[in-house]
Amino acid sequence: MSEGGVGARLHGVCPGPELIAVLAGLGPVRRREIDEAGVREVLPDASEQVLVARAWQRVSAWVESRLDDAVLQVAGQWSGVSDEDWGREEIAAGLRWSGLATADRLEVARALRGRCLLTGQALAAGLITYRHAAEIVHALEPLDDETAAAVEARLLDAAERKTPAQLARQARKEVAKADPAGADERHKKARKGRRVEFTPLPDGMAEMRAILPADAAARLRANIDQLSGRVRSGDDTRTIDQRRADALVALAELGVLTATRFGSGGLDDLGADPAGETPDSGTPDGEAAPGRTSAGPVSGGRARDGRTPAGPVSGGRAPAGRTSGGRASGGRTPAGRAAAGAGQASDAEMSALVRTVLAGRRAAPPRIALTVPLSTVLGTTNTPGDLTGYGPVPPSMARELAADSRWEKWITDPGGVVTDLGRTTYRPSAELAKLVRATYPTCMFPGCSQPSYRCDLDHNIRRIDGGPTSTKNLVPLCRRHHRAKDEAGWGLVHHPDTGACTWTSPAGHTYTVAPPDQSDEPDTLDMPADWTRALAPEPALAGAPASGGLDEPPPF
């Protein structure tokens, strides 16, 4: 069957029973080829099968919308009975959902038929997935109706081109721009919900999950990355992910050793709220705190802290082959301390790691990048700053970090143009790399969110063919997608006038990825976290992580 045939049968069919019937009647899509002997071979046609997969995805979105209709009808049977939403218990018991996940699902469903009606219509039409819809609903919660409507329109336009995780990042920026005055107050409220959670996992593993202020999380990540890179010896067979996990444990043990040896000192009030409050989440270890769903319905309820169950069906577990407490992927053994073996850190190695830190070996502090408008630094405006790897941060946090000499600062004028680098001692090649990675914060493959500081800088026109080493010919590609271009038949055309990248898949489909629109986002500019990395990162830190090439943590 030709692509035109499949496209013709699917074109214009709205998701629902009619589209399901068409898809059910297609069967496997095949194409015929003639080999050298003249024998016809029947082969799978990937190009046409992608069209079929897209159609099934539209059906799935329609099903999610109809499911929302059904659960709202059940909940409606209890309306007016009491102030409690007792319909939630009926739904949770009947559909085997947790109470928190059911409450979140009902909240999203009601918003999609009220305040976020356009998003609900897009879901029912199969234009976006449920996870896209839930991200939009939750992002708009702090905004008034008029502002929310304007932001919703922009997010819906982006939702057809972005993954849910990418959409969530854009939503944070849009909300910060739309309501900068409320950013500080929302941060103060959210900060009180910081916590650490413990969840048992199969096979002797466990997941530790920390909800932290963005600046604290960025410092922790940078310290882990730095420590995991310093301790590797020639016979160390651990992956970079395993070394990071071991470094986190070592940092915690170091804190205990320091407190034991020197006394707690100022540790008692470390990170305390300005008002001195230290609220408890009120939930046991391993249970979801209010607003967080540990086992979501069909598409899963979205966690209020930004975590959505990964995939259409979520059972509250880490995706196959991946755990947050030490990843298991591609046959690797996660980093652990139960036994010393290949890819694992022994007790002796962990002790040596702690001793290395306690010995006080000096090293350059980890560099973390912040971009902030000069007007915010001076206090004349409340435009949010932008923290590398996170996104917009409240004006008060941006001012505090801008005054901290440990942070890399890029100061921008009102048009978003960098006016101060904060450092002036880099070689020209390093400056070029910084500029390219500033323009493209992530890998430029469709849907990839690998930070550009972990990517290779690829020459679109090869140097051997006369391609220049300049901003007009360099784009960041993670190691996996760099190989896809060089080895797997993916074609890439870089448009230097717009900065966009057009990819052509081996199946013949084209996808265009646009860089962040600086004219639309004049006050934020994502910068690389490590400004001294060479043009080609070391393999262990390149675009294909040691855990199997996943470009971002769940949800993907």
From TrEMBL:
- Residue spans making up a coiled coil are none
Record domain HNH nuclease: where: 432-483
* Entries under Gene3D superfamilies matching the protein: 1.10.30.50
Write out the ranges of the annotated region (Disordered): 174-193, 262-348, 534-556
Domain of life, source organism: Bacteria
The cross-references to SMART domains, in alphabetical order and at most eight, read:
HNHc (SM00507)
Per the record, where are the segments of Basic and acidic residues compositional bias? 174-187
Query: What name appears for this protein in its UniProt entry?
Result: HNH nuclease domain-containing protein
